Amino acid sequence: MTKRSWLKDSPAAAVLLPIIGLAGAIALWWLATIVFGIESYLLPSPRDVVISFMDQPSYLLTETGTSILETVEGFLLAIVVGVPIALLIVRSVLLERLVYPLLLMVNAIPKVAIAPLLVVWMGFGQWPKVVMVLLVCFFPIVISTAQGMKSTPIELVELLRSLNASRTQEFFKLRLRYAMPQMFTGLKVAISLAVIGSVIAEFVGTTHGLGYVIYQSGASADTPLAFAAITLLSILSIVLFYILVLLEHLLLPWAQESR
Amino acid sequence: MIRLDGVGQVFDGREGQVTALEEIDLHVQQNEFVTLIGRSGCGKSTLLRLIAGLISPTSGTVRVAGDPVTGPRRDVSFMFQRPALLPWRSVLSNVMLPIEIDGGEGDRGKAAYRDRAHQLLELTGLTGFERRLPHELSGGMQQRVSLCRSLIRDPQVMLMDEPFSALDALTRTELSEELQRIKMELDTTIVFVTHSIEEAVLLADRVVVLTPRPGRLREVVDIDIPRPRTLGQNAHLTEVARISGLLHGLLAEKVAPVEEPAPRQVDEVRPR
Question: Which of B98, B133, B269 faces A157 most closely, judged by CB atoms?
């Protein structure tokens, strides 16, 4: 094996190269803060960020837990609400024409703008956050599910009809299964949005969650703490994303090659 | 076995109505192998779907085994141009799909059908591939799986809509000869749509020639060449040439300029 192909193809390289890239970026960042003598409240060094985290790890992890809970709850709720809406849209042209513009409108509203309103309507508890997450991530779920349901190849539909399958059989044995890979595409888009949604919601009317931590540390110019919270959010977002990727691999082994 | 009397089919197209079939009278005997041949748009696929009960004729009657066709029947199987395999199911599980749709039991136990499935897979040279997923197979093998699936219920009638036309020439010949062999072992009536004269002559007891716009029955040609027929060496080359020539002549007759059929409406894809 030549050196070149080792770099491109070996599994070790597949794991090592991203790590090297990340480490390089952090090193550059660190170097910049030292070389240019940047003040910590403008751009903290990686070391400052780690120290800031180590100062109060249990507090930050608790707030991370709060954010995870809101994100996951809102995300699951979006599936529970979004998938049936998608199924109804696919089932009837009438409903599609009736509901689709509404969905577009709701999706077009800048979510940051309604965060304070959600607090007015639902108080200071968990609900405004969960609903915000629901609002940001249900649209990709609806669209991808609807697209998936419509993508069933006509010859497979005819096959099931020629076998005298009932509508329920057609739905569960064919359409839903066929829609799954596209649904997962939507879910992966939605989970990243869900994390953003929870942060937006936590900027307003609450004293919990990583969004609140960032908001507070901004107000007190505690930039290292903000960076620590942002890092935790990024990790959270990546982990949730890869949980979905893993689920997809386990549930849809057929979808990787055949599409 | 199959009887069509004065069958006509009119579709609502974008620019008014399109007559796909007109005044078709056809009688297919039990155990007969009939091929329907014609240019694209002559309504041969429509005719097959009428017999399958996938669509209802706008005029005339279609009967299978004496009963008017009102919908898909358990003893009639349909094979498509594309393999139409469910991509998440293994080969064996795809072959068993019709039994599963029936509720697993049917007139024999599920185990008996499973044995039958293995037998059919062996017959088509797919032993050892039972657990594979469709995307791991070649096009020819996929279509063999599809053939096994259409045989699993031991159908009285098999309807085949250009099943080999998407395959390469060699695989196509191979599968045609295989189908002929299987047909000789089974008491099944087969109606086979094709636009290949070669395929029609190899397989059919009778070739039905359709002309397009509107689809009409132009001619029925009997083929008396003894079986098994092969495409390569053939003791009846002159006979094959005579029939092929005749079919060529019938298909090449001047017809009105052909428009492509209107694309299928999106509505058809919506769930019922």
Answer: B269
Give A131→chain B minimum CA distance, Å: 31
- Residue B102 to residues B108, B109, B158, B271, Cα–Cα distance (Å): 11, 12, 18, 20
- CA dihedral A95→A100→A102→A106, nearest 10 degrees, is 140
Which residues in A lie closer than 8 A to residue B165 (C-beta atoms)? none
Model confidence pLDDT, tens digit, residues A145-188: 999 988 888 889 999 999 988 888 898 899 989 999 999 999 99
Query: From 3.30.2290.10, 3.40.1130.10, 1.10.150.120, 1.10.3720.10, which CATH number describes the A40-258 domain?
Result: 1.10.3720.10
Chain A interface disruption, residue of B135, B143, B159, most A CBs within 10 A: B135
Q: What is the ipTM, given to two decimal places?
A: 0.80
Contact (CB, 8 A) for B153 and B106: yes
3-state secondary structure of A164: coil
Q: Which of A145, A163, A178 to mutate to test the interface with B (most CBs of B within 10 A)?
A: A163
As a whole number of angstroms, the distance between CA A229 and CA A233 comes to 6
Summarize pLDDT for B221-265 with one digit per residue, the tens: 888 877 777 766 666 677 777 788 888 877 777 554 445 555 444
CA-nearest of A204, A198, A179, A189 to A244 is A189
The whole-angstrom separation of Cα B21 and Cα B100 is 35
CA of A94, closest CA in chain B: separation in Å?
A: 12
Strands B33-37 and B16-28, by their bridges, are unpaired
